[in-house]
Amino acid sequence: MRRTLACPSAAMLLLATLIVSGCSRRERLEPRLIEIIVPSADNPFFRAEAEAAAAQARQLGYRARVDSHNDDPYQQDNLVDMAIASNAAALILDNAGADASIAAVRRAEKAGIACFLIDRAINGGGIAKGQILADNAQGARLVAAEFVRLMHGQGPYAELLGKESDTNAQVRTSGFHAVLDRSSDMHRVAAQSANWDQTQAFQKTETILQAHPEIRGIIAGNDTMAVGAAAAAKTAGRTDLIIVGFDGSPDALAAIRAGEMQATVLQPAVTLAKTAVTEADRYLRTKTSGAPEMQIIPCFLVTRQNVADFAGFQRIGNG
Prior knowledge:
With 319 residues, the protein is of the alpha/beta class. It has helices at 10-29, 44-59, 73-85, 102-110, 136-150, 167-180, 198-211, 223-235, 250-257, 269-286, and strands at residues 33-38, 63-68, 90-93, 114-118, 130-134, 155-161, 186-193, 217-220, 242-244, 263-266, 294-297, 300-303, 310-311, 314-315.
């Protein structure tokens, strides 16, 4: 007996057409994804970047996803691959290394993802659509000049250094010493890396104070370390120490108001993040960001006199 395949009914054909059409419609209606990758969700500066970028993306009609690479280039590679697999439209990246991140950015761009870097540059132009950075050298010179003023241009001091693999750590130290080394009566008697970490900074400061009780001040490569140093100084009863940092974190602003720190430099995390998302949106709509690839945003000196003008890693007043 010969068997024949039954032809699908008109109802079945209509149902299949509607399903396919519905899927296509959902794909068209679903907002495009902007992937946001920062070094750490725990560090207040990076958290502010991520939150500002995500809020701006959603305001402009995109979906936003935030991930952290923890300064691990391998983990960053995996996250970039995930963004590619998710068909992300744009990538906002605070990267895991000036050299180590080049291949990942190039791979994302090749996959059609518009890449905008914030906070940290990569060693290479023409790969990302934009690199939007705070002027770390200018900010370092600002706070170093204030440190010299507060120290009256003389006396021994210590420096807490950031993560050695981070380009910004090197830029800030160079900026500090472009100013500090002009003061012949100021002497750096100790320098320790605390890897941007508050707990490490507390421990390193304890050790420094024991070995060099004569120091009059501490200059730190970021506020997280400066706050750790201030806590160690307070524990040791050294309320006379002049302590300055870099970033403009909420904890540092509170410490300045309390007199436990004397100054910091605000790195405009919110401005960096919002600018990157706005330019990514413009690029996705028009195929141009309307801005040069390399953009440098100035930092602001924060002291006891003007601390009320700053909050949430942004300037809110005009003082």
